[in-house]
Amino acid sequence: MREFIEALICESKSNIIPDAYNFFGPLIGEWDFKWVDNHGTEKERHVKGEWIFSWILEGMAIQDVFICPSREERVNNNQLDAEYGTTIRIYNPKSHAWDVFYGYAGGSTHLEAKKDGETIVLTEIAAQKMKWIFSEITQNSFHWQNIKTQDGVTWKMQGELFATRRI
Fold it and tell me: Who contacts 96 (Cβ-Cβ below 8 Å, separation ≥6)?
């Protein structure tokens, strides 16, 4: 297994990625977060989670592990809709965007990530009715939102999280 980890993990980004397109580089590391949603109900739900990001594939990609509730929280407060997934973001030098794949038990999502000012917007490829938005990115925190639309005009937040850097 050591060989797999050594072949996958990379300490830094590839020089092929221009600094201007290093959207996800500031997220490398370990994060704790508070997930907030209401799933269409009146009662808002808060769940503790963790998100871990690393450079992979000779620095041309970033992979993460998304765990909600966190491993510690799962012991006492597991959720019916708990998620343990991974995202692979690969820089595309032709489009200067990132090709993104998120997979978890029972599903997957394919997105494209581009910058809009200081915000990173990931748009779901197939129907373009879902977006993930990273905003307010600092060295020690970021805000993430999952928004959806039925009509392509009105967007509704499905959930959001507020992350703080652990390491």
Answer: 18, 21
Task: Specify burial of residue 1 (Cβ count, 10 A radius: 0-12, 13-18, 19+).
Answer: exposed
Where does residue 19 rank: exposed (0-12), middle (13-18), buried (19+ CB within 10 A)?
Answer: exposed
pTM for this prediction: 0.93
Spatial contact of 2 and 46, defined as CB atoms under 8 Å apart: no
DSSP states of 90-134:
EEETTTTEEEEEEEETTEEEEEEEEEETTEEEEEESSS--EEEEE
- Structure token pair of residue 5: 């980890």
CB-CB neighbours of 102 under 10 Å: 20
Q: What is the pLDDT along the chain (167 residues), one digit of tens a residue?
A: 899 999 999 999 999 999 999 999 999 999 999 999 865 666 788 899 999 999 999 999 999 999 999 999 999 887 878 899 999 999 999 999 999 999 999 999 999 999 999 999 999 999 999 999 999 999 999 999 999 999 989 999 999 999 999 97
